[in-house]
Design brief:
The structure is a homotrimer of 159-residue chains. Chain A is of the alpha+beta class and 159 residues long. Chain A contains two helices and nine strands; from the N terminus they run βαββββββαββ.
């Protein structure tokens, strides 16, 4: 859109809820992004955009977000979600964001992200300057959700 | 995004179509939102945003929308979709939107929304000022769709 | 959003990848839209918006896009994705975009789009001035993806 993204912030959360949608809502709240409108994007970090600590975002703001979420209603099951980004040496080039969710351990989720980012840079022919992964795991009690997200923000979105 | 949401409007529709996507398109047309671009959001009513009757929206406008849709190709099946919102006593706080779709009756869909909104307010520790639910049901003839939506609008989006 | 769409561009791509998400990423790269943020829309061509050759888009730009994608991990399988648009005689009215993806041939995908656009215009009571379909097919080696997309663009989005 006409929005100019000037910063990004990664976060993750996991929670139980009495329905799958409430578990998702509760995980978003735990992640600090439960009172904004997520707009799913697929999934590029614009050039020269720093990834910062999650700032305070205006309630109801429309926030382009790359995210992975998994919900399970199987008690005892382990679910994990992860996002990661990598930025290239060349600051004029964009970074890449990858998402993973599934019935997997946290380590498996993190490893999946790293592998996908490696391939994304290999096919782009870019040298990777930095890679970071954010993962969360949840053991389901009744209905659980794990999610990880990278929000794309502009100054206007902040409180 | 940089868009400032100043009003919201709820609607619902159901229809048959010769494909699942046409049934969805036809249900959108019946709901009065078939000639705009829906951008799915997850799903907060910004603070102090009134929910009004669906106004005339510019054709092709990009409209952030919380929606639930269900399509079925099983003749005789009952499908329902619902959305609902609740707003807090404190006008500085955001409201919450919940969606439901499934092989359920209209009453079950409405009840699901109410339960989810109750939990959403309980976990936020907010007192609920008002709750409204919009639901629609459809009995499938050949290929049917039921959908319910809350659009997030700005003055610029209107004809 | 407040964005004013002034042009649209169609594209398609297909690729292998070492994961489903990488195959999708690689197909996006082949289609020339691998370094932007796609925001899925559902799926109207605004009035009087020409569909042009894919221009060079700013890396990381947030681009509303109607798209269809299919991924398969079954070696030997044929997968196809298609998008198409139709515009009405009346330039004040919007066009319609339809998407298809599945385990189908390119011809089946194209035919599905044509049928859906025909119905969309019949139910709207609009005479069709022009219809175009963009399809791609892929025979899976290990993990493959086929995708077709129509991006909705503004001047600001271009390099």
């Amino acid at each position: 859109m006409t929005k100019t993204v000037t910063m990004a912030a990664a976060t993750a959360g996991h929670a139980e809820g009495s329905t799958a949608l409430n578990a998702f809502d509760n995980a978003l709240l735990m992640a600090g992004i439960g009172n904004i409108n997520l707009i799913k994007v697929s999934s590029i970090l614009p050039p020269d955009v720093p990834v910062i600590e999650l700032p305070k975002i205006k309630p109801g703001a429309l926030i382009p977000t790359a995210y992975a979420a998994v919900t399970s209603e199987t008690p005892g099951e382990t679910i994990s979600a992860a996002v990661g980004y990598a930025v290239p040496d060349d600051p004029a080039k964009n970074g890449v964001i990858m998402e993973f969710h599934g019935h997997a351990s946290r380590e498996e989720a993190e490893q999946a992200i790293r592998g996908m980012l490696d391939e994304a840079f290999r096919v782009r022919g870019e040298a990777m300057k930095e890679m970071k992964v954010f993962a969360v795991t949840h053991t389901v009690e009744r209905i659980g959700c794990a999610l990880a997200a990278i929000t794309l923000l502009a100054e206007d979105d902040l409180v």
